From TrEMBL:
Membrane topology: Multi-pass membrane protein
Transmembrane annotation, as ranges: 69-93, 99-117, 138-168, 188-218, 230-248
Location of this chain's protein in the cell: Cell membrane
Predominant place of localization: membrane
Record InterPro entries: TM_pro_TauE-like, TSUP
Pfam families with a match to the protein in the record: TauE
Family that this chain belongs to: Belongs to the 4-toluene sulfonate uptake permease (TSUP) (TC 2.A.102) family.
Keywords carried by this UniProt record: Cell membrane, Membrane, Transmembrane, Transmembrane helix, Transport
Record flagged with keyword Amino-acid biosynthesis: no
Official protein name in the record: Probable membrane transporter protein
Annotated organism of origin: Crenobacter oryzisoli
């Protein structure tokens, strides 16, 4: 019961952070590995995905009630993200994580510097006209993010939000809402592998999902009412945390 209470608390915080700006896995995955050390990693990832997709679904529902999204862009991105998350998962054995980490570390630093220096980045919502080119770009964006999420994962929501702002001139609120839809597609794709393979423990997954949904509800409401400025600050904080984590893994642990 004590373990379940701690897992519920971690899932709630993870859902709150993920709904507001992304990056909930930074909290939930280490928590699962620390509190359930005797369960195999694949099962822990299955529990994490089930909990995460529940919170993301709740957050998405909140955003869709208040934010109008350009589905002509979102649906191609989500569809290709779903498909290419399988490709990424199958590529895990061919592309070692140690090769990915330095590249992601550099990309995160570049993303943080760009967002910090460009003060109006993500502050205005002036989406481009949706042409065939924009739909193709959305599909390519979804494919790249889906592949990354299936292969590795950390920071997927942050990368998605950044790319929606950079390529389609969204503000942070619309970018975060759009990222939730695409991220939900990649999570469902992962679950379609983990659940049939038996990599899940429902006694842990269901309570965590409920707590993650509660966190997702609160996080989405905070983001919506806090507005673009608050999300921008949270985004920069999260990216800084990601840089710290990757830097620690690269230069301290190794």
């Amino acid at each position: 019961m004590e373990t379940l209470v701690f897992l519920g608390g971690i899932a709630f915080i993870s859902g709150l952070i993920d709904a507001a700006v992304g990056g909930g896995g930074l909290v939930q995955i280490p928590g699962l590995f620390n509190l359930l050390p005797n369960i195999q990693p694949a099962t822990l990832f299955g529990i994490n995905k089930f909990s995460s997709v529940s919170g993301t679904a709740m957050a998405t529902r909140q955003y869709l009630r208040r934010v109008r999204l350009p589905w002509a862009l979102i649906l191609p991105a989500a569809g290709f993200a779903f498909a290419f998350s399988f490709v990424g998962a199958t590529a895990v054995s061919y592309i070692p994580v140690k090769v990915m980490k330095p590249l992601i570390f550099v990309l995160l630093i570049a993303m943080a510097i760009y967002t910090f220096i460009k003060k109006d980045f993500g502050s205005l919502h002036k989406p481009k006209e949706i042409t065939r080119r924009e739909r193709v770009n959305a599909a390519l964006l979804g494919a790249a993010i889906g592949f990354y999420d299936g292969l590795f994962g950390p920071g997927t929501g942050s990368f998605l939000a950044f790319l929606f702002i950079r390529f389609f001139a969204f503000d942070f609120l619309h970018a975060t809402a759009s990222a939730k839809v695409v991220n939900m597609a990649t999570n469902i794709a992962a679950l379609s592998f983990f659940i049939p393979a038996g990599h899940i423990v429902w006694a842990w997954a269901i309570p965590m999902a409920i707590c993650n949904m509660a966190g997702g509800l609160l996080g989405a409401r905070l983001a919506i009412h806090g507005g673009v400025k608050m999300i921008r600050v949270l985004f920069l904080i999260l990216v800084a945390v990601l840089i710290g984590k990757f830097g620690y893994d690269l230069f301290i642990v190794n």
